[in-house]
């Protein structure tokens, strides 16, 4: 308003707020009343702001709206103890406090129930930093009892749970949680430690080893149609976190992995059915905690190991080239016998009954009836 005094501007803003409130436009009313209060500092305007938020709270039971209403009623009660609206403000305070506290509890429970994985760790951190360590512990312990979480997420959860326990004065539990975190992430460190956190963490580091890991010997060729034993050693599990080993396997590059489990030290066995002659088989091994989350891996579904199944032996053959049928010795021996017999038959069949004798004394004889 050009040329208007602050008082006039405050009154104009107040009128706009009152009009918006009566129309149910509470956001517009809040903006106008805040302007009026900034210009005039009249405490009764705080009551009006409380009324705007309370009306919104009645429609939408979000604790944030109830808390804002309480804030303005309490401010009016402090700043204007003789105000004619103080009694109304205190009545609203008495009604709102338990209702808002219950709404906050319900919202918190809903957030806890809905938070999973990384979101659960973020929520727990927010609760812890906000002084709600008990709720943070609920979120984290619930997370640690869920399956299929990865090693890094578990390490973060154990690290934060150690801080929560230290903040609650349970130093022994804090050390235990820190040891689990260091077993999964040997390089873990605390950021901005407070209270007894650092002492518990240093004690855990003193006991920590080089980290949990799986060790297995490389495979050569395995026999066909015989279960293959997968020998895997669990090392660095000082906290006894590993509950089961999981073997995932499949024919090379074909579909989803099947799996089988065994509690160490029992061995893992790859079923004979998948070990067909000449096949390639992809596999990996995981160490799981009691909830089924992954503590360590040797290979993984994206980068599995591969083993070769033996092929059946080929028939034994001579290194010499086969002899053609027409070169066999027995064939030509028989043929020679047949040939010799044929020649003899021809000779004998054409020989005359008697042959002339050519002696010294006898000359050739003329045929009968003929003379020299």
What does this structure look like?
Helix content is 49%, strand content 13%. The chain has helices spanning 6-22, 26-40, 44-59, 63-79, 86-114, 117-129, 133-144, 151-167, 171-184, 197-207, 329-350, and strands at residues 213-216, 221-222, 228-230, 232-235, 244-251, 258-262, 268-270, 280-288, 294-298, 305-309. Strands 2, 5, 6, 8, 9 and 10 form a six-stranded mixed sheet that branches. The radius of gyration is 50 Å and the shape is elongated.
Provide tags for this entry.
372 residues, disordered C terminus, elongated, six-stranded mixed sheet, Immunoglobulin-like, alpha+beta, Serine Threonine Protein Phosphatase 5, Tetratricopeptide repeat, two-stranded antiparallel ribbon
Topology (elements, then pairings):
Elements: H1 6-22, H2 26-40, H3 44-59, H4 63-79, H5 86-114, H6 117-129, H7 133-144, H8 151-167, H9 171-184, H10 197-207, E1 213-216, E2 221-222, E3 228-230, E4 232-235, E5 244-251, E6 258-262, E7 268-270, E8 280-288, E9 294-298, E10 305-309, H11 329-350
Parallel strand pairs: 2-10
Antiparallel strand pairs: 1-4, 3-7, 5-6, 5-8, 8-9, 8-10
Helix pairs in contact: 1-2, 2-3, 3-4, 4-5, 6-7, 6-8, 7-8, 8-9, 9-10
State the separation between the terminal residues, measured CA to CA: 179 Å
CA radius of gyration is 50 Å
Q: What share of residues are in beta strands?
A: 5-15%
Mean pLDDT: 86
Described by strand count, sense and barrel closure, the largest sheet is:
6 strands, mixed
Would you count the extended β strands for me? 10
Low-confidence stretches: 328-372
């Amino acid at each position: 308003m050009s040329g208007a005094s602050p008082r006039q501007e405050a009154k104009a803003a107040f009128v706009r707020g009152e009009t918006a409130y009566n129309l149910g436009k509470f956001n517009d009313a809040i903006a106008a009343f805040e302007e009026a209060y900034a210009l005039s500092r009249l405490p009764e305007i705080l009551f009006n702001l409380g009324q705007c938020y309370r009306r919104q709270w009645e429609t939408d039971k979000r604790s944030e709206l109830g808390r804002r209403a309480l804030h303005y009623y309490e401010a009016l009660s402090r700043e204007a103890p003789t105000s004619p609206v103080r009694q109304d403000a205190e009545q609203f305070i008495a009604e709102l406090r338990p209702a808002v506290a219950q709404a906050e509890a319900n919202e918190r429970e809903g957030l806890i129930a809905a938070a999973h994985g990384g979101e659960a760790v973020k929520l727990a951190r927010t609760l812890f930093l906000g002084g709600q360590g008990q709720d943070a512990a609920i979120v984290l312990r619930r997370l640690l009892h869920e399956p299929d979480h990865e090693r890094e997420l578990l390490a973060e959860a154990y690290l934060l749970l150690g801080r929560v326990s230290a903040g609650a004065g349970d130093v022994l539990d804090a050390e235990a949680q820190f040891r689990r975190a260091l077993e999964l992430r040997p390089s873990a460190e605390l950021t901005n430690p407070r209270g007894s956190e650092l002492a518990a963490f240093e004690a855990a580091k003193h006991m920590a080893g080089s980290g949990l890991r799986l060790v297995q010997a490389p495979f050569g060729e395995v026999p066909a149609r015989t279960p293959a034993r997968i020998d895997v050693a669990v090392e660095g599990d000082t906290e006894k976190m590993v509950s089961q080993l999981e073997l995932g396997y499949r024919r090379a590059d074909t579909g989803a992995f099947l799996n089988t489990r065994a509690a160490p030290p029992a061995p893992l066995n790859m079923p004979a059915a998948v070990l067909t002659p000449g096949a390639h088989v992809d596999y990996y091994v995981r160490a799981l905690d009691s909830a089924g989350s992954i503590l360590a891996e040797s290979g993984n579904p994206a980068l599995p190991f591969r083993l070769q199944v033996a092929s059946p032996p080929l028939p034994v053959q001579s290194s010499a080239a086969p002899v053609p049928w027409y070169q066999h010795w027995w064939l030509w021996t028989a043929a020679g016998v047949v040939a010799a017999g044929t020649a003899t038959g021809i000779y004998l069949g054409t020989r005359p009954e008697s042959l002339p004798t050519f002696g010294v004394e006898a000359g050739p004889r003329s045929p009968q009836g003929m003379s020299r």
